[in-house]
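Work Package 3 (structural annotation) set out to generate three-dimensional models for the target panel prioritized at the project kickoff. During this period the team completed the workflow that converts sequence records into discrete structure tokens, so that structures can be stored uniformly alongside our sequence database. As a representative example, we reproduce one entry of 200 residues exactly as it appears in the project archive.
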Amino acid sequence: MFAKDAIGILAKHRDGAIAVCALGVASNEWWDATKAEDCFHVHGAMGFAASFALGLALALPNEKIWIINSDGSLCMNLGCLLTEAAKAPANLKHFVIDNQVYQTVGALPMVNRGVTDYAGIARSAGIRNTRTIDSPIELDRQLPEIVAERGPSFTVVRIEPDPSYLNTPPTSYEGAEMKYRFGRALEKRLGIQIFNSSGY
């Protein structure tokens, strides 16, 4: 399966979860599938989607929080798994879209690709609910159980590199606009105040 297939299935089972996306192909496909403004796309900070999402999960324990991560982004911040395991937020689901390449910079191969077991690393870090899925049928079949289980959970979704990824347009905004759109979407959805009267 390709990223578009995997992300389409994830989006179908989202059930209102607030998502945080790592930069790159998975982020673009998530935006294309959902156009959701209660999703934060971490542009320019590779590796930190998981840390951002963990903070949200701890701050909003009654909301479902998803991380749409990538193998490259995960590898730049593997320590996030230790913190996720230690804090053990019940509302956190961590999905890693694993295509074994750095797709957006010319499909350069991931270090140790085909050998590293990301689900095994997460399990050893202390996250009990882990698995690797490599077919769309299995992803669609297992997602209801994954969504229902107590977090944190960690799911690797293995996909094929896709040379047509540039056909999927990215979000039409980033930076400060991303911050304000996301924050205002949460204010409206949750009935909370994030920004003061000056907009900060």
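The chain has one domain: 3-189.
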